[in-house]
Write a structure and sequence with these properties.
The chain has 17 helices and four strands. The protein is mostly helical.
Length: about 475
């Protein structure tokens, strides 16, 4: 009779592999700095747009047009920031998604189920909350997609302040969740916010993407080839009527994200390393500067909680995002017979789900697209995004602070490197060579302790002998 087959139960949010951990750490460092700049830009926009005497200059700069009108690109500054600079942001998102699909967590269908289901539930629940709120209040359903997005840069900026010791598994979960979230947000923009299509321009953009792909396949190098081509593709995509950021995602997905023999990093990873600082440090903060400048007077803030469209956005971000992501994660664990990592509790997942309710960059963009024919409502929805994101950040701060001591111990265990070989000890526990190195280190430490103890004992004996000699020499 055959012995029963045993399987190792899969862990939800378990320890990352060492390469994945290093990639996540590098990506989060850049995004954290970008998130801080994003926060500064948002505050600057609010001050610029609300201080008497400065408001008119903010409106003047935001609506100033420039660009070649013959090519259909005579756009306002705010429009260039939303359609142009955010294409760089989504280009990086495309590379991240490609890497996750071929080398990261999304490569394994079982591991991919968690962030994909969590992201889908984290987008469906806010949309449902918004729809129910507006159905009850007789509001407009056009803004259903506004609270569906998560701003990873803003969320990580909050983490940098309150949760620097958050375990790497939770950070990776938030990062992967946001990557999948960005993909679905782009699909929402492409499908639901494209009214008319210029098929000639779209055909030209698709032809440009084919050329882009062929050049990559042939191994052609040189930024002077790809940057002009990327600009042409972006311009054609913009004129096609489809949001121009789609071009950024498409080009990012075409890059090779698996290293070849002799390569330490793939082409996609190298380009991402170069472009990510530009995206996080310039593109996204400038977009925030010209999108977050909304009125925050007492009356305007009060209306956020009285108008169904704005209340739906706030509740979608704070309630819908949290319940959707937490519920999706729990359901995935429940029905795939997986268990949560022993180092974490479901309260930790709930706190990170609350943090994902910070929907800033993409939520502002979708708000502009959803209500572009109503300037007043656009401003009110932007205010609702800011209020909802602030509430979500405040709740996450409280929840994460409660568990901060536990996180600190987990972080120290993950970072411990007693043999000083640059690899955390937790990844070497099954390596016989590691145990030999540690035994040698312990033996050296023990020998050093014995030497110090012997020196102290010798010194004490010398003091005793010296004291006895003084007694004998003392006159009676």
């Amino acid at each position: 009779m055959a012995a029963p087959r045993t399987t190792t139960p899969r862990k939800v949010l378990g320890r990352l592999s060492l390469p994945e951990r290093r990639y996540v750490a590098e990506a989060l460092r850049t995004e954290t700095v970008g998130g801080v700049l994003l926060l500064i830009a948002a505050i600057a926009a609010l001050i610029w747009a609300n201080v008497p005497g400065l408001h008119d200059s903010y409106e003047s700069v935001s609506h100033r047009h420039f660009g070649p009108g013959a090519l259909g690109l005579n756009l306002s500054v705010a429009h260039w920031a939303a359609d142009g600079l955010l294409a760089i942001f989504f280009f990086v998102a495309g590379i991240e998604l490609k890497r996750e699909l071929v080398a990261g967590d999304l490569r394994d269908p079982k591991a991919a189920a968690l962030p994909v289901v969590a992201a889908l539930c984290g987008m469906a629940a806010p949309a449902l909350v918004y729809a129910l709120t507006n159905a009850a209040g007789d509001g407009s359903l056009k803004g259903w997609a506004v609270p569906t997005a998560t701003d990873i840069a803003f969320a990580l900026a909050v983490l940098a302040v309150i949760g620097s010791s958050l375990p790497s598994a939770l950070r990776a979960f938030l990062l992967t969740l946001a990557v999948v979230d960005d993909l679905f947000a782009i699909l929402i923009i492409a499908v639901f916010f494209t009214e008319t299509i210029d098929f000639a321009a779209l055909g030209g953009a698709l032809a440009g993407l084919v050329v882009f792909w062929l050049l990559l396949r042939k191994g052609v190098r040189g930024w002077y080839v790809y940057v002009p081509l990327a600009l042409v593709i972006w311009a054609l995509m913009y004129n096609s009527g489809i949001h121009a950021t789609i071009a950024g995602v498409a080009m990012g997905l075409m890059l090779r994200c698996t290293p070849r023999e002799g390569e330490e990093h793939s082409l996609g990873e190298r380009i991402e390393h170069l472009v990510r600082p530009l995206s996080a440090g310039i593109a996204v903060p400038l977009f925030a500067l010209f999108s977050a400048g909304v009125s925050v007077s007492g009356g305007a803030l009060g209306e956020v909680f009285t108008r169904p469209e704005t209340l739906g956005v706030v509740l979608g971000l704070v309630v819908g995002k949290t319940l959707g992501i937490f519920g999706g994660t729990w359901l995935t664990a429940r029905f795939t017979r997986a268990s949560l990592s022993e180092d974490l509790q479901w309260a930790d997942v709930f706190a990170v789900a609350t943090l994902a309710g910070i929907g800033f960059t993409v939520s502002l963009l979708i708000g502009e697209l959803a209500f572009e024919d109503d300037t007043t409502l656009t401003g009110e929805v932007k205010a609702a995004v800011l209020v909802g994101s602030l509430i979500a950040a405040s709740l996450a701060t409280v929840l994460l602070k409660i568990r901060n001591g536990k996180y600190q111990r987990l972080y120290e265990a993950e970072e411990r490197d007693d043999d000083l070989d640059g690899i955390p000890d937790i990844y070497e526990q099954d390596d016989p060579a590691y145990h030999l190195r540690m035994a040698a280190i312990h033996e050296r430490k023990a020998a050093e302790h014995r030497r110090i103890a012997e020196e102290k004992a010798t010194a004490r004996r010398a003091e005793v002998m010296g004291g006895a000699g003084e007694e004998e020499d003392r006159p009676a």
